[in-house]
């Protein structure tokens, strides 16, 4: 397991290296991005939010990382706890957030706990089934998403070409059609003119209300013509 840290404060660099001795340390985003692109092995990435007095630099770096690496856990280590909410807007799927202002014992415990959790996630994702990736069409581009992270896909209007992909930690908007989604992977099943679900997330169905329930407790309507397909998935 490889560890990478983006931090431009020497004191904080040493502080984290005292806890994670094998950590590769960078103080420049470009150098970190180059190293990450060359490393195909499982890794954990630690990012400070403020780099060279730019408060949201770490979030911008995380967004660039997600363009070529959607699997590696990202742990935010920062004094700017008030900016944590922005990570959801940036859709970086941060694994954890560590507040630098904690005392040494608390900081060490939180960091070691976060790293242990990230290591466990990496080990689980080494399973091919866990790491299956779907390339979602988005106009002229594609968005790469881990299959198991997808819960369902929908559009607000059956004629709309803008879809929302609901994932475990984020929502993605893509320019495509509902009919194009099921052909991307056999686990993506259309259940309604406006809904496609990941069959791995299906928990139950209610024929009285003609709805299904997913693992995240979301209930969605299904069309009568998909009834037998859904029954087959649950049997």
Question: What key phrases describe this protein's structure?
Answer:
alpha/beta, 2 domains, five-stranded parallel sheet, 15 strands, OB fold (Dihydrolipoamide Acetyltransferase, E2P)
Description:
This protein is α/β, with parallel strands linked by helices. The chain folds into two domains: 2-125, Response regulator (Rossmann fold); 133-234, OB fold (Dihydrolipoamide Acetyltransferase, E2P), CATH 2.40.50.1020. The protein contains six helices and 15 strands. The protein has helices spanning 10-17, 29-38, 57-66, 86-90, 104-125, 227-234, and strands at 2-6, 24-26, 43-47, 74-78, 96-99, 133-138, 141-146, 150-154, 162-167, 171-175, 188-192, 195-198, 202-206, 211-214, 219-221. The strands form four sheets. It has a five-stranded parallel β-sheet, with helices on both faces. A five-stranded antiparallel β-sheet has the order 10-9-8-12-11, covered by helices on one side. Required for high-level post-exponential phase expression of a series of secreted proteins.
């Amino acid at each position: 397991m490889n560890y990478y840290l983006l931090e431009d404060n020497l004191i904080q660099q040493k502080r984290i290296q005292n806890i994670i001795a094998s950590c590769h340390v960078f103080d420049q985003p470009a150098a970190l991005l180059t190293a990450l692109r060359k490393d195909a092995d499982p890794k954990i990435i630690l990012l400070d939010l403020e780099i060279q007095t730019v408060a949201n630099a770490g979030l911008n770096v995380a967004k660039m990382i997600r363009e070529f690496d959607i699997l590696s856990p990202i742990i935010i280590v920062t004094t700017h706890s008030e900016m944590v909410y922005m990570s959801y807007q940036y859709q970086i799927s941060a694994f954890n957030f560590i507040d630098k202002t904690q005392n040494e014992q608390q900081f060490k415990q939180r960091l070691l706990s976060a790293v242990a959790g990230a290591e466990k996630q990496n080990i689980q994702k080494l399973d091919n089934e866990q790491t299956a990736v779907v390339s979602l069409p988005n106009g002229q581009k594609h968005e790469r998403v881990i299959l198991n992270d997808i819960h369902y896909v929908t559009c607000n209007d059956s004629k709309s070409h803008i879809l929302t992909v609901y994932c475990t930690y984020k929502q993605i908007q893509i320019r495509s059609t509902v009919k194009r989604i099921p052909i991307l992977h056999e686990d993506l099943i259309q259940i309604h003119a406006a809904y496609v679900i990941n069959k791995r997330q299906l928990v139950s169905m209610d024929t009285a209300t003609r709805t299904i329930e997913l693992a995240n407790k979301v209930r969605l309507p299904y069309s009568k013509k998909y009834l037998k397909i859904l029954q087959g998935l649950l049997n």
